[in-house]
Write a structure and sequence with these properties.
single chain; alpha/beta; Rossmann fold; UDP-galactose 4-epimerase, domain 1; 2 domains; 7-stranded parallel β-sheet; two-stranded parallel sheet; 8 helices; 19% strand; globular
Length: 298
């Protein structure tokens, strides 16, 4: 299968492309700007997914895995229009392309479309808490429309707190684990402000879920949580980071903010896709620390 991967130079895209190639797929990448450190072994198209003429620049493909978008939920409050334009309109733009191409479409959505909770199945209430979550939800609605009205084979995967090698270092794109690890490796305090839980998902498991959603004929028209199904408090995560890095960083608990937990029920992905996460949080952090230390030696 010839597959277009948008967001090819991002955390998940960089991990997905080698897996697709190893499985025998032909892959074309798409990204807004080059990242030399990504070193992708495929053709990379530099383009903006909101460009109305985008379809004329993409070669014929049989599937699109759509990972591109703005991902910093906190920053979405400063420019909600940009998030709507990129995450919603950009998705719609690609859906028009796949409809004409007769291709499959896998859309990467987010835990943040849900009302927070400790066991979130795909049928849980949709209640985003920030413009980022709303932009992803709108993208999902466009996917539903193209599936129902035009017969486009669409699958939606909702990721939960993905982390691992390739995640941006010291930037707004960093997840909480990356922030903890960066600070621990520098010996700086690890501050926790809320009793929240997260379903930390190592990038290799996220990629495995994506591949299943892409390759299984049962997947089109369905939404799947891709996570571990296990919640970890931010305080426990900070303490684990401190222990596994051997850091002298103090863990400071100032639990003044309300709980906002996102923990998945992954039963549907297990039953329908055969998805099984392989990495415990300990295993994932250890692998990630080795990668970070190799690239940011003390």
């Amino acid at each position: 299968m010839r597959v277009l991967v948008t967001g090819a130079t991002g955390l998940i895209g960089r991990a997905l492309i080698p897996e697709l190639l190893a499985a025998g797929h032909e892959v074309v990448g798409l990204a807004r700007r080059p990242r030399p450190e990504a070193n992708l072994p495929v053709e990379l198209i530099l383009a903006d997914i909101t460009d109305p003429s985008l379809g004329r620049r993409i070669p014929r493909v049989e599937a699109v895995v759509h990972l591109a978008g703005l991902a910093d939920a906190g920053a979405s409050w400063q420019d909600p229009a940009a998030y709507l334009a990129v995450n919603a309109w950009g998705t719609l733009n690609l859906l028009f392309f796949v409809r004409e191409a007769g291709a499959r479409f896998v859309f990467a959505s987010s835990q943040r479309v849900y009302r927070p909770g400790r066991r979130l199945a795909e049928t849980a209430p949709i209640e985003p808490r920030d413009p980022y979550g709303y932009s992803k939800w709108v993208g999902e609605v466009w996917c539903q429309m193209f599936s129902r009205l035009y017969g486009v084979p669409v699958a939606v995967v909702r990721f939960f707190s993905v982390y691992g090698p390739g995640q941006a270092w010291s930037s707004g794109q960093s997840g909480v684990l990356t922030i903890f690890l960066e600070r621990a490796l520098r010996g700086e305090p690890l501050e926790v402000r809320a009793p929240s839980r997260r379903d930390f998902t190592y990038v290799v498991d996220a990629v495995a879920g994506l591949r299943l959603a892409l390759e299984r004929p049962e997947a089109p028209g369905r939404v799947y949580n891709i996570a571990t199904g296990r919640g970890t408090t931010l305080l426990a995560a900070a303490r684990l980071v401190k222990r596994l890095t051997g850091s002298a960083s103090p863990v400071v608990a100032r639990l003044s903010e309300p709980e906002e937990s996102f923990v998945a029920d992954i039963g549907r992905a297990q039953q329908e896709l055969g998805y099984e996460p392989r990495y415990t949080l300990r295993d994932g952090i250890c692998a990630y620390v080795r990668w970070l230390r190799a690239r940011h030696p003390a």
